[in-house]
Amino acid sequence: MAKDFKSQSVVDGYDLHIRKLIPGYEVVHQQIQALLKTYVKEHAHILIVGCGTGYELGYLLQLFPHWTFTATDLSATMLEKAKQYIQPLNASHRVQFILSDVTELKNEQSYDAALSILVTHFVSFQDKSNFFEAIYESLKLPGIFITFDLTQIQSEQELETLKNVVEINGLSSAQSTAMIRRLTDDFYPLSSQETSDQLNKSGFNPIMPFTQILAYQGFIAFKN
């Protein structure tokens, strides 16, 4: 059964669970921070596609005090959690929250950068082209897109390794087994080459991988 991101209990436990589920979670976010600091100007408007509970939004608000953000999610429960998460930062005036799919955004505003972290692998195969194209169209020239997702599992050994690492991170054997069962229900992963091809087809060039941890891989793509 696919995980219900509109469930309050799922949302409340998400931040703890995701750190057990994703190897190198904090390291990936450090890399994202470094990329944004390198490629994005001091005053910028950032699109966060699938903002979840607001963790990513929260640290970016603190690190980049002159940036403004548009944060989207398909779950009203997630958006409410994100609003609560950033409230102590006194920075809500710098964020516009939108309950919407990125393909439904009205592009009166253009963004300097867009982030889709652990989101694209939930987009169905038939919708991925529209998803990437919508992000491309939303960006200014020049603009960057950073994505980090699960890629296709290539072998039983790779699947077993993924199961082992989440148990090392703190998941129980029952939880890791449930995770493996949910891969078919929850995820629509592309291969590394397919991801690059889809991004290129949407207009991005160049496209560069910036990290890989087991089956999870991150790309930075440029609109020039």
UniProtKB/TrEMBL annotation:
<dbReference type="InterPro" id="IPR029063">
    <property type="entry name" value="SAM-dependent_MTases_sf"/>
</dbReference>
<protein>
    <submittedName>
        <fullName>Class I SAM-dependent methyltransferase</fullName>
        <ecNumber>2.1.1.-</ecNumber>
    </submittedName>
</protein>
<dbReference type="GO" id="GO:0008168">
    <property type="term" value="F:methyltransferase activity"/>
</dbReference>
<dbReference type="Pfam" id="PF13649">
    <property type="entry name" value="Methyltransf_25"/>
</dbReference>
<dbReference type="InterPro" id="IPR041698">
    <property type="entry name" value="Methyltransf_25"/>
</dbReference>
<keyword id="KW-0489">Methyltransferase</keyword>
<feature type="domain" description="Methyltransferase">
    <location>
        <begin position="46"/>
        <end position="140"/>
    </location>
</feature>
<dbReference type="GO" id="GO:0032259">
    <property type="term" value="P:methylation"/>
</dbReference>
<keyword id="KW-0808">Transferase</keyword>
